[in-house]
Specification:
alpha/beta; about 650 residues; 8-stranded mixed sheet; 3-stranded antiparallel sheet; Serine Threonine Protein Phosphatase 5, Tetratricopeptide repeat; disordered N terminus
Amino acid sequence: MSLFRRIFGKSQKPATNAAPGQSETSDSELITVFDKYGREMQIAKSQWRDKILAPNLEQAWDEPDKLYGFLLSAFNDQLFSEVEHAAQRLAEIDPQPDRGATTLAIVYQQTNRPELAEAVLLDHLKTHPESGTALTNLAKAQEALGRPEEAVQTLWRGLELDPNQDVGLLWYEAIQRERHGEEAGLEAFRRVAALPGSWRAQLWVARAELAAGNLDRAIELYEESLEAAGEPAPSDALQQITADLGKQGHILQAIDLVSPRYDFERHGLQAGNNLIKAYYDLGQLDHARTLLTQLQTLQRPDYQDTLAHWDNVLAKADFETRPEIGDKPLQVEVIPVSGPIWLKQDHPISERFPRKSLDAPLIAFTGCSVDQPNLPDKPTASRSDSTGRFSRALPLYLCERIHLESALRSRAPIPMVVNQGGGFVVTSEQNRAEDIARLARMTPDPSDTQNIADYALDAHLVARGENWTLKLRFIRSIDAKELWETEYNLPENGFHHIAADMLADIYRCIAREAEIEAQPSVPPLTQLEGRELDHYLLRLEQSLGARCAVSIPTSENFLHNTSEIISGTLFLCIQNPTHLPSRFVLWRTLDATMQLEPQLTHSFAPKIKSLQADHPIDHPAYPELSAELDSLFQSAAS
């Protein structure tokens, strides 16, 4: 498994209680890693060290840049003594001698051997010019060895050479503040800001001016800092400017200063997160959404929690800014899903699945009704929730199972509002048998008598407590007669607990009440069990939403959380690598999102390619499915 570390935003803590030559780590401590698909997982630090870090260090033994990168990753996980040999190797081969020497010195310092850190750096400085980084680390060793005054002098000499090293600058300010008070800390920043080439200290002086209410002076300092830093602007500078101005309520000034200099590929989430918030606070939701999508295309797993938060916040804001439903009647259309929603009936790939006789009985699976607390007494727009999604997903799933497992035909009519912003219909009361029968008899072409459903199976969800109750009714469409009814208790979002028994009951009902032989013959590679079945229902419903957003365009904000929909469906496929329907759902979802958000969808191409290469499925339809996925991304690229 290919894993890489989350480095962004992690702090480093010195191993103060470790014995000489050892770093303070716990082998049982869990650390966060991501696989190449972006899935987050927790593994023991010992496993990371032995199974992943060690081989990576060995592989990079003769490549200084890679070796340095892996050492930084180890430092983030408080692994110092464990990588001492590699740090020594870097010091020997690094074409940037300053980097190699300071990296080894950090290892010695963090393993309570400041005398070795000092020796390494002094030896380095005998043959190389002084640098700010080397002198700052030398000062750290001197302080640890009980020579604080010498350390301050060395630190200042390092700042004169490089006034913009963040560790040295903040340490110098802390020393002055602890010795002489708050004003001395600010004067320390001002002293460094006066050094040639300084830009970082100006940011801290500007923060003090903001706190004192001197906005104009703070803006001057920010502009001075950015001019001195040059192009491209440092990411942490943009982050600090947006954070400081935002906290003080100067949002427009933050955007004016930073947005012209911000590049999402170079500056990433540090300043991007603050810019999104600034746009959101100003109500500039389109700008916020554009920046969010750009950051999502980077496919950085360490960004995903923050970006998912903003996805939800912006989705909620989009919904709250929609006009209220007026007096104009709602226009409802029925989406007639025939067979599996993921199978294109008019596509050659459908020939890889059993064909249905037009004389075979047709069953319509209806739902989209939920009884739950605090329901409005008139038509109201609301965001999709777990109950609404389940009320749509269950008919889709039953439609799929009947199609795959029997000779019967199946259809799932899904009602949808196509005006006033659009959205799926969910009724609060159980549908009347007459309305269900009428829905079952509906066809796009009134003269198409072969596609009038003979029966309907309606599902009504009651969600008024910790558990749910699912009520089923089997109805003959010609006269709306209820032939069978039953109910099941299930945990919230726990359909997998009742799925097998419910399907068996449905087949027995069809055979008994409709006198139709319906012995299931389950095709291989099509079943899921446990919680993955509930996961599959979620992705089925999301695929429906994505495709409806394309085929019935009612509002540009109809579909939200596109990145989560794609990544979640991808994870479903990885977690169930031989489940053919999941792979088809991924294809149909991508086909829709490519039309809605092509830049974001195309950024998933490497992961989709890896999925197809790593997890082929032994099914006649799979080569054509792979070709469709390849074609989807190739056409987007061209």
